[in-house]
Amino acid sequence: MAAGKLDREKDFVRMCVVGCGNIAKAHLAAIGRNYGLGAPQIAVTCLCDPNEKNLKEFGDLVEATCGARPSCFATLEEALAKESSEFDAVNICVPNDLHEQVSLRAFAAGKHVLLEKPIALDTASAQRILEAARAAGTVFMVAENAQYWKEILVVKKCLDEKRFGEVVTVRAKCWESTVDQNEWQGDYAPGLWRSDPRRAGGGYVFDSASHWIRPLRIWVGPVTRVVGVHGRCVPHMQGESFAHAILAFDNAKFGSLEAILAPWHVMPQPWFVIECTQGELVIDGAFNGGFGVKAFSREHPDGIVLDTPGGWDSSYEGEMADFAAAVLLKKPLAAGPESAVEDLRILLALFKSAATNAWVNTADV
User: Fold this and answer.
1) Between vectors from CA 152 to CA 323 and to CA 305, what angle results, nearest 5°?
2) Which of 119, 135, 200, 291 is least enclosed, having the fewest CB within 10 Å?
3) Residues 92-125: pLDDT tens digits?
4) 90 pairs with which residues across the strands?
């Protein structure tokens, strides 16, 4: 969908974007598309990035999207010192090891915060961020776009309505290839911060699997225990590039999570399969949405498409609109930041399980 134009006659959130990489571009594109949807508005008024080339290129995109050139600074500290009154919110899109540092500074300045997932590298850091948010009394959202992914919500509605009976088990597969080109593939190139677990918190699984964990929790409920293994198959990545895990939910159901970043071509396959007592739901493994959601049942043995595909990128529209509505209209978020802590606990439990060869309680990490 083409972007509309910012209506400056209406209220909008003035946002400072810290970190001008790929995820910031995805956020900006969604902000622009939302102008044409009548959603609560955001205007990017300020950018922070130590790389001047990034600032220039992203500044051009902001001007084209929001209709005005943003102010540009190397750091959030500099922006707060010189133009703090020019923005209400901070969108933090920096490497994972900087999440706590930048978040605490934004909260100390009384800003609303949109923090890209993961919330932090460990639960102690996450708790310090939550405490700072409570002290600030501002809106705090951890950006997990899977919460707004159309295909995920279509399945959620089916399950709530018990259209295909009760959930029996669920399976998620998070897969990408370093040789199959897509807009995110370059994020895992040699020498970038995602290849260093000291900066990323881990490897591909730590960085990406939360997008597949959140839907499982939305559909089935809280995860209480995890057992799993992980390993490496991408030579230049120091952290894990694949994992297998079994998740135990608090309602005695089980699910599986598989994740891989492969240095070879990967056959297209479903992102999710949900087995129910009266059928099976399948979400296509395509960033553009593919066939969307298909249901297989006694009545539809060859499958039936349940809705028009939404696709990955459209999930950012809901994410940006939800944040803006929380700031401008005081609406509750679809998921509070505590939900991101639960995603983190599941990942940390997986890593601990791999190290101990045992089931790990998520409450213990």
Assistant:
1) 135
2) 135
3) 999 999 999 999 999 999 999 999 999 999 999 9
4) 16, 113
Over residues 6-25, the pLDDT tens digits come to 888 789 999 999 999 999 99
Sequence-distant (6+) residues with CB within 8 A of 353 are 226, 227, 228, 229, 245, 359, 360
Strands 293-296 and 279-283, by their bridges, are antiparallel
Q: Which residue has the tokens 């593939």?
A: 185
Torsion angle defined by CA atoms of residues 140, 226, 95 and 231, in that order, rounded to the nearest 10 degrees: -170
**How many distinct helices (H) and strands (E) make up the chain?**
11, 15
Token pair belonging to 360 = 């790990």
Contact status, residue 115 vs residue 142, Cβ threshold 8 Å: yes
* Partners of 112 in the β-ladder: 89
Residue 164 to residue 186: CA distance in whole angstroms = 39
Q: CA distances (Å), 267 to each of 256, 270, 353, in order?
A: 19, 10, 29
161 CB-contact burial (10 Å; exposed 0-12 / middle 13-18 / buried 19+): exposed
Neighbours of 82 (CB within 10 A): 12
* Strand-pair category, 89-92 with 112-116: parallel
Contact 214, 193 (CB under 8 A): no
* pLDDT digit string, tens, across residues 40-98: 999 999 999 999 999 999 999 999 999 999 999 999 999 999 999 999 999 999 999 99
pTM, rounded to two decimals: 0.95
Taking the CA of residue 225 as centre, how many other CA atoms within 13 Å lie in the half-sphere pointing to its CB? 10
Band (pLDDT 50/70/90 cuts) for residue 2 is low
What is the C-alpha separation between 265 and 206, in angstroms, rounded? 22
**Beta-carbon count within 10 A of 361 CB:** 14
